[in-house]
Amino acid sequence: MSSSTIQPTNRVPTLRERAEIRHLINQDQEDVVRLTNTLEALEKKSIAQKGFIHNYEEALAIAEAMRRVAEKTRDVMAESENMLQPHDADTSVKSEGQSYHKHQRLFRDAQATRRSAVEEAQKATRKIAEMDASIRDIQQEIKGEQSVLAVLEMSMQSTITSIERVKADIALKEAVISARHFVPVEIWRDIFSFRVSEDEALFYDNKRKGIPPFTALKLSAVCRYWRDIVTSSAELWKYIAVPHHDRITVGQRDRITYYHNQCTPLLPEVYTYYHACDGIPVKVNLVTFMRETFAEYQTLDMFIHAFSLMRGPSLRSFLELLSPKANILQLSGIHNPGYTFDIAVDSIRYVKHLKITNKPVSIAEPSHGAPTIPLISFTLDSITLNESLFTGSLSSMSHLERLYLVNVTLNIEGPIISVTMPALKHLTCDLHIYPTISRFITSPRLDDLTLVIKPMEDSTMRDFDEWLGRGGERHPHIHNLTLQALHSEEFEIRNLDDTVLDHFPDVKHLRLSGTTPSSNLLSSPTSVNSLAHIMVLTIIGSAISEEELASFMRGFAALHGRTPKLAVLNCSNLNIQAIARLQNQHY
């Protein structure tokens, strides 16, 4: 099996194929060792060859310099001969005087100098010829050595190319037999995303105490293949943990910055966590750093607690300084009866969805003018509500479209003026507080209502029956009604069919979530006149049987001459075939 016939696929190779591919890998690794040794030998020869060329080039430089010296000598001697040439003949007048003897002496010196100049010029000419021959020889030697060097370098490059090719072949073959490559990159991303979500959920359940999971960092450190997948998947870096301290360390700053860069272009989901950092230098101001780093958040989840316990600012002060631009702002704390958490309107002016858990909240008005709270949705979970919510906070939420009041306790002692919420379209609240909520909130656009059903005391149920009795108010503007049971066990809710649905006569989409509402409300459909306008019936998480639901559909058809469109999700007693029979049957 040659490497050219091996293709990386998601098919798991057989044992024979794996053995043959492993044998090829071993051969390739031996070739790499051999080629590497050859390359090292070629490199040594190349270094020696460059030394030869260097020596020849130095010799050439000396020969050229000596030729220039000889040429200069020849030119000087020729000039000297020319200067003495006019004095070649003896033009003196013979006499016995001193002048004649001085002339003869100088004349003989000039003749000797002229003969010496001629000889030196001839010698220099011969030297020039000698250097020319030497230069030609050296140049030929250099050309020869350069040719040898070129061959060596070509062999080295060919060997390097061969090594790279063999290593690529090894990588390809290892990829074929590597278990991680059996799974497509898209599936790895889904696996990593699930792992990140699971780890973050576990850390959240642990009250976000200790060191965060940092799952993306850990996954990227496993191997280069995983690192390439993780670092190219922005969604794996969207959860960014920030210490719940007014000052953080340089290392924490760098880690948060790295996560934010990897998360881009997605908006980050930032949350604070508790982690002791005693003895570690904390130099970076958190609120300043967050303002400079995060232009916008998908989610900002913070504890309702002062930063760094005693030395840091309160959360209200921190939020006022931060003024985050967040799609969702979540604030959670430890339940403390009698304590109300205040939020300044200015600190949430760029927030679309606000969720507060375990702390009663009051949104304080600014000192200048009447505030308008620009929230689209507002969630209060596991808190006690008093009249300030209605007279203060909700009255300023003119843009609010969705209101969630879950696991709340009402503590209303004085009279409350009705609050008009012109934009409110959806309300979710506990069933037993709905009568009170509906009295105090006027919402002309409210169309979608979710009532959460929980076990209630008999006295609470009697109060509910009294208000939602047959003489009570009716809510014809509700077209989408959800009855959601949070309790997993069966419990009795008396007269739900009479006391609830009769007060919502125009419901077109009825959603029943949980065993209890499905069993009670679908037991006798012919007696429930308010179901006449239902166009869609959704059953979620119910133990209702196929026969019970078919009986309801037959009774509905007999009473109204039609059946609603049926949607069934996560019902234990209804499989795909049963759902298809219910949806396609003519009643």
Automatic annotation (TrEMBL):
Coiled-coil blocks: 25-73, 107-141
F-box domain mapped to chain residues: 184-240
Tagged with keyword Coiled coil: yes
InterPro entries listed in its UniProt record: F-box-like_dom_sf (IPR036047), F-box_dom (IPR001810), LRR_dom_sf (IPR032675)
Keyword field: Coiled coil
Name listed for the protein in its UniProt record: F-box domain-containing protein
UniProt organism field: Serendipita indica (strain DSM 11827)
